[in-house]
Amino acid sequence: MKFIFADSLDYVDPAFDFVADRSRAERQPYWDDAYPHEILGYAPYDGVLVSRGIVGDHRVKGKYTASQARRFELVGVRKFMRLDTPQFMHLDIFGDCGAFTYVQEDRPPYTPAEMAGFYDECGFTHGCSVDHIIFDFESTLTGMQGGTQDARARFDITLENADGFRREALGMDASFTPLGVVQGWSPGSMAEAARRLVAMGYDYLALGGMVPLKSPDIKICLDAIRAVIPPSTKLHILGFAKADDIDSFHGYDIASFDTTSPLLRAFKDAKQNYYLPGDGLALRYYTSIRVPQAIENPKLQRAVKKGMFRAEDLVRLEALALGALRAFDRGEADLEEVLQHVIVYSAALVEEKPYEDCADSVALAKLTERYRRTLNDTPWKQCSCAICRDASIEVIIFRGSNRNKRRGIHNLAIYQDHIERLDLKRAVNRPDDFQHRLCAAER
User: Fold this and answer.
1) Residue 96 designated active-site
2) Is 237 buried (19+), middle (13-18) or exposed (0-12) by CB count in 10 A?
3) In degrees rounded to 5, what are phi and psi of residue 121?
4) Which residue among 33, 96, 163, 329 is the active-site one?
5) What are the structural domains of the chain?
């Protein structure tokens, strides 16, 4: 099973000054910054996925600047992402249409011919057909039952585009492998979409619409699909948000999946921000320590405007928390002393009150215990990756993009190792097991 990282310009400034909390004045983002595979010195993934919607154009506002989008199409995806050296030439580069970016439209803004040309000209190794995402899902429906008028229209559009996309790819003798995208509102409708895609000639399918589904529902869909397609047909899961649950998918014969989950959880999860290998095949998670910028954090600034705090007091508490954490990292401060400085500053963020007015807060007590575990275990000292080695305790501090994304990149490295340890890349179930699991799921 290949772990494909869905990139969204996720690079960091390797020269960032953590103490001064700033980059060099002459820094040029993208040109001076480093992708995960550059700052780590190796690729913490088997490939990357770049969405057409992330690149953007005049129809869909992406994340790239206009000049970045032009360069991307001029030099190609591999050179743009600095994956064109011998060390990284083996990595797969997947592309999709970015169906989330045009979900409100009646039809996708891209034609099959446009997307086939985009993938081929930009040097993708794999390209997904033009799909129209279906968010409706009912696991108890059988066959082609149910489905709103909108869901059925999107189902038809996705299959119509897939047929045209494959014809375009064949007609231009494209250098990329085309993937037919499966969309549906139930396990049965997804299975029917997969059956039709195989009949069109696809031997690699991509399951769309999986992001909001829970793991049991995804497994039912996989079983239903596997029951109607040849065992040799490869499956990719698009936007696999349940990446940390991947060990429970052992044996489902998934060829590849893409996710940003390990990186995003570094700064979007309330508790599990930092990964380490755990006992057996598990992962351990730690809560990063929030020390936001006093003069930039919107919540703290609102509290200042309301007269609840003076800006200079918040700046002082912020400096005390950061100083204590760094002293602790050097072995010059006691854990409980550091915790006190951090929690006193956290009170303004969590309770929007001075610590003296909420010292017995339940929320602060729970936060204290999570922070105590993080500081007691010093997980950043247990990791030898380039991020943790160079940034030290800064990697565990929740504060600004350069720290938060570094922690996310560290998570990518741990996650890739997790996939290797699970040995999922060599796991293949016997074809007759799929029908057995499908029957069990229906019971």
Assistant:
1) yes
2) buried
3) -70, -30
4) 96
5) 2-268+420-442 (3.20.20.105), 292-398 (no CATH)
Q: Output the DSSP codes for 302-326.
A: HHHHTTSS-HHHHHHHHHHHHHHHH
CA 57 to each of CA 7, 65, 73: distance values in angstroms, whole numbers, following the listed order: 17, 9, 11
pTM of the shown model: 0.92
Query: What whole-number distance in Å separates Cα of residue 139 and Cα of residue 209?
Result: 13
| Helices 311-329 and 298-305: angle between axes, nearest 10 degrees | 140
The pair of three-digit structure tokens given for residue 265, joined into one six-digit string: 């959880």
- Of 7, 13, 258, 329, catalytic: 258
The CA–CA distances, whole Å, from 70 to 12, 114, 183, 312, 420 equal: 22, 16, 31, 45, 37
Q: What is the pLDDT of residues 121-170, one digit of tens each?
A: 999 999 999 999 999 999 999 999 999 999 999 999 999 999 999 999 99
CA distances from 94 to 126, 194, 278, 439 (A): 5, 19, 30, 33
Six token digits for residue 9: 């310009």
SS3 readout for 87-117 = CCCCCEEEEECCHHHHCCCCCCCCCHHHHHH
